[in-house]
Specification:
heterodimer; A: 1126 residues; alpha+beta; 10-stranded mixed beta sheet; 8-stranded mixed beta sheet; 33 helices; 16% strand; globular; B: 160 residues; mainly alpha; 5 helices; metal-binding (chain A); ADF-H/Gelsolin-like_dom_sf (chain A); ER-Golgi transport (chain A)
Chain lengths: 1126, 160
């Protein structure tokens, strides 16, 4: 029935299973005779299971058919599903042994969870990347200040703009809703999971002990007293092991966002010592007969859910909380339920004490928001931007914390995964319109998580009307019913859900992992698939024209694939295939039994057909040698080719035909403009217009061939990833459609050449390695639900919108970000919190159907000042960037630029007029929006939107793709790069990660005034890093880090730091390595001197400075002020 | 009783207006079909449905696009005929819609052959809402004008 466990998503960590005890009491088993526990999950579609050795059985239970597959690679491990067979139930219900043997089980990695590998989950620095493109000398004179045209992001009711509706925050005229009433809203939504009937319950023994010793449902009350000294924490250990394990329920590493946060919320509710004070002091877990709340005490210092249930039931009736006297009362309750209630009879107490008065959960968000403003006005502190110069925080900006009761916030979704532009949702659309800020969500749903709870269950509990997955923000009316937090329907708790596989106790539905984790993954039962989950199928479509061979990418590609072929995510069904093309299409017959790969050439590109449909896509395991042979011979095969034409369209059609029976991933490598057959394109770029200050043409596709093909691909669950390695114009605007609508990704390596551009080669190699080995989900759909009253209206990212809330994603990869815009359709009058749920259903490369669910909970506020206090300036900038990309394509670039400027003007005007009571001179902004003008200016100077600076069309279009497709953290680096001084790195304040000391220099403003000739600076622009060496740079740095004696001897083409055995070198390399580790792509390093060719692109990122064609930061502020005071 | 050119215009427009009403009703049904997906979410998330659904969306969008030019040209014909017949009041009533059509036709996204109702963006809720609203408004307008033309036709026939 249900097993739950955590596994590391990166594969290096081991997943472990929780063999839950038989979850159902015999009565329940009789009631649900049809349920076959643990055996129904995809029994037929998991061919790996035969090969997989059975893991060490956790304890006593016989292992079920789902054995974890040994992780093949750094890819995700197979879910820790080891379901057990409940029959015969009695035999597995042995009270003693499970408790004792469970922790001792060798296969139980809980206590020794390895540090998760793969990507560390640190918050990446918030800054961003410009691009390495060479810059022609700008020919423009200083442009006039951006004019404020009538184009605005905000809908003008008199001037509906139906052709760019996605741009508007509200599509409907603002509802006539009255300003939100100030009356205290009911406190309904705050979860109160406590059944008042339980209040008379004596503290029964710890749940697990009870349950294992008294399995039958309706045993007599004497059974609640387990015989002998119990080991209460044992069962809890099985799951949490609070002291030794990183917060297990919390999929995110705590330091990513919990601490070091401006305390918006109510004051912290006391340190652990206070917690321990109230309940009888709980001794060491083992062998203590006192029923302790072990999770509560030990888990408290960690922000993870172990401590979470403490705060989760703070609104207990007072009498209920005081039932700490351990005596056995006669309660009509089910003994197991008594056991269940026990932990939280005591747990809440500590939390009740410190605040004195209502617990934090009882504080309605709006009240909390108010109290917070009086106590911590940091977010709303008025900043005069014209006077305060140093606004940039020394460290990357953390996401603002929603003003939620602490217990809810603690379990809220990680902002790196799910984040809203406004952390306080306005009550009405008119309020939102007044605030003039975009409302939307930014998602990174498939992010590599270091810890992710995975649940296997034969029934996934969902709301019956809106199909929301049960999540931590639902409220339990009583033990048997829960109320959906999205549609407010009351649902029954299924019998099976009453059993908690984690603590192995019964009657605690609110402690199930589903209700304790805002991010969770389900292994879907068979009703979620009507066809067998597709195998992992990879098709590589390679350009082998003369131009392609010239660049020499084939060598790198073949070598990378050869090196990583075993790391390709998949199982025994994995298939691969290869197609090469120039003016003809070449297929490769790799059928088993052939002595060498057989090339089949189809020259009829008008009417493409598959020469041998069966043997072109072959099983990787069976034909690995042939595949390796082919990869070794491919680079030499076309060495002498003189064919210059490229029939990309036909090759794509052929690849689509090949993949359409199964679906899968198509990786297309293209090096020139396709000029033959269907989908042929013409060069549309006029090099003389690159620096034009006028509107940029040709941002939209030239043909709809690629879009139509992408839709066909999407329908057949094929995703197309495009690698463009070209030195010339390739019309990415048209070609990109093939990836955009099939949920692929686009990689672009301008001026790629194996000899002339080693930095690009390294970048390509690293990216390719990541691309080949990263996790992948097939035939995915993502649905985003939100609380009734809110509606999602526009999506940004790479996908096809299949219905108004459903995104079709033939493939989903961990590096894909999404953004959505929302509007408020009905007033959220009587709500204090709203929730958003993103559910991603996908087939893992192991052929499992999985559902990853993220739930975000945000408070609703009814005053403008609260809305401003909760504004998330990075998310707003990210969403505005997405909207601006759309606007540039549908309308024009200048329109988009004006709209961005207006967004800043409008929101600051609104702040000044509606929130500020005292009118002061100057450009005033709340502290949380103090960087907004800077980010807007950065966007205006970003490669996507800049004018006046020479920008190649493909570079621009690629930058636009990046803005829409990258998750926010990386997109921000591309918008606003980080600048550090690195010649004087010290260990002061350094991070210490896995025994490496990472120095933490402070962020500098992007202005030349911060540079000095005596120093060296590192600019981290996302996809590229610049190491700028000052002319009089400290010779110590030159010799110790760069290994050169003097400035003059710094080589021109230095792309990596020499590995010197000096402290300075180690610090510098550690810092750069740490920055690189935080992102999935590989930023190449460029060491530049004054006369270096990259100097121009480095200087273009100096956003705060004036350039020939753009305003300086101060001028931009003056311009804003002028517009605002109009 | 006089069979004037104006009366003829009204008779013709009466017929064509009925056609327009059918067009718009068809549009409303099409948008409704776009909006209502399969109710069973499990079914909806099923990969095998994807193909069918996407084909469906493309088909509807293609049909919708095919109707755009006939509808706009029929309406343009109205205006032309009323102008010729000197029915200035009727023309004045139709001018706003004529300009709206012109704006909508020429202000579409500059995306190759796409006119509007792009299958990749039509499912965005705001575009869909806008299109639906537009259709309902047009339906109202065409219905009202149908009766107005009927009245005007009779008036033109019985006068003199």
């Amino acid at each position: 029935m249900s097993t739950a466990g955590f596994n590391s998503q990166n594969g290096t960590g081991q997943g472990q299973a929780y063999a839950n005890g038989p979850s159902q009491n015999p009565v329940a088993l009789q009631q649900l005779p049809g349920v076959s526990y643990g055996m129904t999950h995809q029994p037929n579609y998991s061919p790996m299971q035969a090969k997989a050795p059975a893991p060490p059985g956790p304890g006593l239970y016989p292992s079920g058919p789902y054995q974890p597959v040994p992780p093949v690679s750094s890819y995700q491990p197979v879910p820790p599903v080891s379901s057990y067979q409940p029959v015969p139930p009695v035999s597995s219900y042995q009270p003693g042994p499970p408790l004792t043997s469970y922790p001792a089980s060798p296969g139980q990695p809980l206590l020794t969870r390895p540090p998760m590998g793969g990507l560390p989950s640190h918050t990446p620095p918030q800054s961003a990347s410009p691009s390495p493109g060479p810059r022609l000398p700008p020919a423009q004179a200083t442009p006039p200040p951006p004019s404020v045209s009538s184009s605005s992001y905000y809908q003008n009711p008199q001037q509906p703009q139906p052709m760019a509706p996605s741009w508007q925050y509200n599509t409907a005229p603002p509802p006539m809703g009255p300003p939100a009433s100030m009356s205290t809203p009911p406190r309904g939504p705050v979860a109160n999971h406590v059944n008042p009937a339980v209040s008379s319950t004596a503290p029964p023994p710890p749940s697990s002990a009870v349950y294992t010793s008294a399995p039958p449902a309706h045993v007599s009350h004497s059974a609640t007293q387990p015989p002998g000294p119990r080991m209460p924490p044992t069962s809890a250990h099985g799951y949490t092991q609070p002291g030794t394990v990183p917060p297990p329920m919390n999929p995110m590493a705590p330091h990513t966002y919990q601490p070091s946060r401006a305390p918006y919320g109510p004051p912290p509710t006391g340190p652990p010592p206070t917690m321990k004070a109230t309940p009888p002091p709980t001794g060491p877990p083992m062998g203590n007969a006192t029923p302790p709340p072990p999770k509560a005490v030990a888990g408290l210092p960690q922000p993870g859910p172990p401590g979470r249930h403490l705060g989760h039931y703070p609104s207990l009736p007072p009498g209920y909380q005081n039932t700490s006297t351990p005596h056995n009362t006669t309660s009509p309750m089910h003994p197991a339920m008594q056991a269940a209630t026990q932990p939280y009879t005591q747990a809440p107490q500590p939390y009740q004490q410190p605040p004195g008065g209502p617990g934090p959960a009882q504080l309605s968000p709006s009240l909390a928001a108010m109290s917070l403003q009086s106590s911590t006005p940091e977010a709303l502190r008025v900043v005069n931007l014209l006077q305060e110069r140093n606004l940039l925080p020394p460290r990357p900006i953390p996401a603002p914390t929603p003003c939620l009761p602490q217990d809810l916030q603690k379990i809220n979704c990680n902002p790196e995964v799910f984040r809203s532009t406004l952390t306080s949702i306005p009550q009405t659309q008119s309020l939102l319109n007044k605030a003039k800020m975009p409302l939307g969500l930014l998602l990174h749903p498939f992010k590599d998580l270091s810890q992710l709870p995975v649940v296997t269950s034969s029934t996934i509990v969902r709301c019956r009307s809106c199909r929301t997955y049960i999540n931590p923000f639902v409220s339990f009316l009583d033990q048997r019913r829960w109320k959906c937090n999205l549609c407010y329907r009351v649902n029954d708790v299924p019998e099976e859900f009453m059993y908690n596989p984690v603590s192995r106790s019964y009657g605690e539905p609110h402690k199930r992992p589903e209700v304790q984790n805002a991010t969770i993954e389900f292994i879907a039962p068979s009703e979620y698939m009507l066809r067998p989950p597709q195998p992992a199928v990879y098709l590589f479509v390679l350009d082998v024209s003369h131009n392609a061979v010239e660049t020499g990418y084939l060598n790198v590609f073949c070598q990378s694939l050869l090196d990583n072929i075993n790391a390709l995510p998949g199982d025994s069904r994995t298939k691969v295939g290869f197609i090469t093309f120039d003016s003809t299409i070449h297929f490769y017959n790799l059928q088993e039994g052939l002595s060498q790969p057989q090339m089949l050439i189809v020259s009829d590109i008008e009417d493409i057909f598959l020469p041998t449909p069966d043997s072109l896509l072959v099983n990787l395991n069976e034909c690995k040698e042939l595949v390796q042979d082919l990869l070794k011979s491919l680079p030499t095969l076309f060495e002498k080719t003189m064919e210059t034409q490229s029939a990309l369209g036909s090759a794509l059609q052929a690849a689509f035909k090949l993949l359409s029976p199964t679906g899968g991933r198509m990786s297309v490598f293209q090096t020139q403009l396709p000029n033959l057959g269907v989908g042929a394109l013409q060069s549309r770029e006029d090099p003389n217009q690159r620096a034009s200050a006028k509107d940029i043409q040709h941002l939209s596709p030239a043909t709809d061939f690629y879009k139509k093909l992408a839709l066909d691909c999407s329908g057949q669950q094929v995703a197309v990833d495009l690698f463009l390695l070209s030195s010339q114009y390739c019309d990415l605007a048209s070609l990109g459609c093939i990836s955009r609508y099939s949920a692929g990704s686009v990689y672009y390596y301008p001026s790629y050449h194996h000899q002339h551009n080693p930095a690009q080669v390294e970048c390509f190699q690293k990216d390719l390695k990541r691309y080949i080995t990263r996790k992948i989900g097939f035939e995915a759909v993502m649905r985003i639900r939100c609380t009734k009253g809110l509606s999602i209206h526009t999506f940004h990212g790479n996908f096809f919108v299949r219905s108004t809330d459903l995104l079709s994603l033939p493939n989903v990869n961990p590096d894909a970000g999404f953004a959505v815009q929302m509007s408020i359709e009905e007033n959220l009058d009587d709500m204090q919190v709203v929730s958003f749920q993103a559910a991603l259903l996908y087939t893992s490369s192991k052929g499992e159907r999985r559902i990853r669910v993220h739930t975000l909970c945000l408070p609703v506020v009814n005053s403008l000042s609260d809305i401003f206090a909760g504004a998330d300036v990075q998310a707003i900038s990210g969403l505005l960037a997405c909207m601006a990309v759309d606007r540039s394509v549908t309308a024009s670039l200048s329109d988009a630029r004006d709209a961005m400027t207006n967004a800043a003007i409008d929101s600051l005007t609104s702040y000044r007029q509606s929130v500020l009571t005292i009118q002061q001179p100057g450009l005033l902004a709340p502290a949380c929006l103090r960087l907004f003008p800077l980010f807007i200016l950065a966007l205006l100077k970003q490669k996507s939107f800049r004018t006046g600076t020479s920008t190649r069309l493909d570079d621009r279009v690629f930058a636009m793709c990046q803005l829409k497709y990258q998750p926010l953290a990386y997109a921000m680096l591309m918008i606003h790069p980080s600048l550090y001084r690195i010649d004087d790195l010290t260990d002061e304040g350094a991070l210490n990660i896995s025994e490496r000391t990472i120095p933490q220099p402070i962020l500098l403003q992007l202005s030349v005034e911060k540079l000095s000739r005596e120093a060296a600076f590192l600019m981290d622009a996302g996809t590229v890093m610049y190491l700028w060496i000052g002319r009089n740079c400290n010779p110590n740095f030159l010799s110790q880090v760069l290994g050169v004696p003097s400035y003059a001897s710094v080589p021109d083409n230095l792309f990596m730091l020499p590995e010197l055995d000096t402290a300075e070198s180690q610090r510098t390399r550690a810092f750069i390595g740490w920055l690189r580790d935080q992102r999935p792509f590989f930023p190449s390093l460029r060491v530049i001197r004054d006369e270096s060719q990259w100097k121009a692109s480095f200087m273009q990122n100096m956003i705060e400075d004036r350039t020939e064609s753009a305003l300086s930061y101060y001028e931009f502020l003056l311009h804003l002020q002028q517009q605002i005071s109009k | 009783m006089a069979f004037t050119f104006a009366a003829f215009c009204y008779m013709l427009t009466l017929v064509l207006c009925a056609a327009l009403i059918f067009f718009v009703i068809w549009q409303i049904i099409a948008f409704d079909e776009l909006r209502t997906d399969f109710k069973n979410p499990i079914d909806q998330s099923n990969p095998t449905r994807a193909r069918e659904r996407i084909l469906n969306i493309e088909r509807i969008c293609n049909l919708l696009r095919k109707l755009v030019v006939p509808e706009y040209s029929i309406h343009g014909l109205f205006c032309l005929m009323f102008m010729c017949a000197g029915e200035w009041v009727t023309l004045g009533l139709n001018i706003p819609l004529l300009f709206y059509h012109l704006w909508r036709f020429f202000h579409r996204p500059a995306d190759g052959s796409e006119v509007m109702y792009d299958p990749v963006s039509v499912m965005n809720a705001d575009i869909l809402n806008y299109c639906q609203k537009e259709s309902w408004c047009k339906l109202g307008f065409y219905l009202l004008s149908f009766f107005y033309y009927l009245y005007s036709m009779v008036y033109a026939l019985v006068s003199f």
